[in-house]
Each structure stands twice: as structure tokens, then as C-alpha cells.
Design brief:
By secondary structure, the chain is mostly helical. The protein is built from nine helices and no strands. It folds into two domains: 50 residues, Arc Repressor Mutant, subunit A (Orthogonal Bundle), CATH 1.10.10; 140 residues, Orthogonal Bundle (Tetracycline Repressor, domain 2).
Length: 192
């Protein structure tokens, strides 16, 4: 039997946790169920992640980083168009991975109820990742204060769009709402 490296095993547990939370909710995301979904012994899960909270935080980090890595900014686009397109790409990425959208909401609200400081930390990590993506897409077109403001709006619009979509499930409505949100983002960026 081939031995699995620690980083690969870590990713297996993160993917299994996403699947379990999306299917069963966070209240039923037991370490035993997660280990079974990863096709791994429970002891391995506890070796890689010392606490369930550590596992959940790693899952949340993964949910922030994965879509950010897939963002593509056209080389000749104006900064306002680049940021609007970022929002569009993020929504499309999560729609293609609905279990990740559900898990992200579940984890954030679980942390908000159980560990408000962790929820605040998660928001800060999201904000910083968004600021970095905007910096990459726009270069020096926006100063730090502007990037912070635009990042907050982007996060608020993104979360609202996904929450709305999980409730109504209508892809055409989501596309129309996303385009409206992209216009709002473009207008804000243009104002700087």
C-alpha cells in the first residue's frame, strides 16, 4: 500500500470536510464522518488536525484561496473593468462548486455563534485576500484606502449574491444580479 504524504492527506481531509458539511451541515460534521469520507482512519485525522476548530479554519482558508487563485485579469482591461470582472469570476467559480458556497456560509455562521473572534479573523483573512487580488488586477491604480473600501464592497456583494442564489436557485436571476453588482463595483472604482 502506497504511503500518502502529510500535505496530500491534509487536502483529503479538507475536501472531505467540505463534502460532509455541504451534505450534512456543520452540526453533523463529526470527525468520524469526515475521516470516513476521506477514506482514512480517525487517528490520521487527529494527527493532521489537532482540533476540529483547526480543521474548520483550514477549510475556510482553502475556500478563500481556491477561487482567488483562478482569477484571470485581462492585460488591457481598465481597473474598474478588472474589479467588476473579478466579482463575476468569483460568482461563476462558486456556482460551479456549490458545495463550497454552502460550506463557506455554514462555517462562517458556526464561528460567529461559537467563536466570534475566529469569525472576525476569518473576515480579515477574506479582506486581505481580496485586497491582494485587487492589487494584482489593478496595479497601483488604487491606493490602500481605496482597495480596502472596494474589497469590503466586493465581499458584501459577493456574499449577498451567493446567499440569494442559495435561496432562489435561479441561474438567470443570479446572472442579472451579478451584472448589476459588477456595475456598482465599476462605478466605485471609477470614482477613485
Amino acid at each position: 500500500m502506497a504511503r500518502i504524504g502529510a500535505e496530500e492527506r491534509r487536502q483529503d481531509f479538507i475536501e472531505a470536510t467540505i463534502k460532509v458539511i455541504a451534505e450534512h451541515g456543520i452540526a453533523n460534521a463529526t470527525t468520524r464522518r469526515i475521516a470516513a469520507a476521506a477514506d482514512s482512519p480517525l487517528a490520521s485525522l487527529h494527527y493532521v488536525f489537532h482540533t476540529k476548530e483547526e480543521l474548520f479554519y483550514s477549510v475556510y482558508e482553502s475556500l478563500i484561496n481556491m477561487p482567488q487563485q483562478s482569477l484571470q485579469a485581462p492585460a488591457d482591461a481598465l481597473p474598474a473593468d478588472s474589479v467588476g470582472d473579478m466579482l463575476r469570476q468569483l460568482v461563476k467559480w462558486f456556482i460551479a462548486h456549490p458545495e463550497r458556497a454552502i460550506t463557506q456560509f455554514e462555517l462562517f455562521f458556526w464561528n460567529l455563534r461559537n467563536d466570534p473572534q475566529m469569525a472576525a479573523k476569518i473576515y480579515i483573512v477574506s479582506l486581505e485576500a481580496t485586497q491582494q487580488a485587487i492589487q494584482k488586477a489593478t496595479g497601483d491604480a488604487l491606493d490602500h484606502a481605496a482597495r480596502t473600501t472596494v474589497s469590503r464592497l466586493l465581499i458584501n456583494l459577493f456574499d449577498g449574491l451567493l446567499l440569494s442564489w442559495t435561496a432562489h436557485g435561479d441561474p438567470e436571476r443570479l446572472e442579472a444580479e451579478t451584472e448589476t453588482a459588477c456595475k456598482a463595483v465599476r462605478l466605485l472604482v471609477e470614482s477613485y
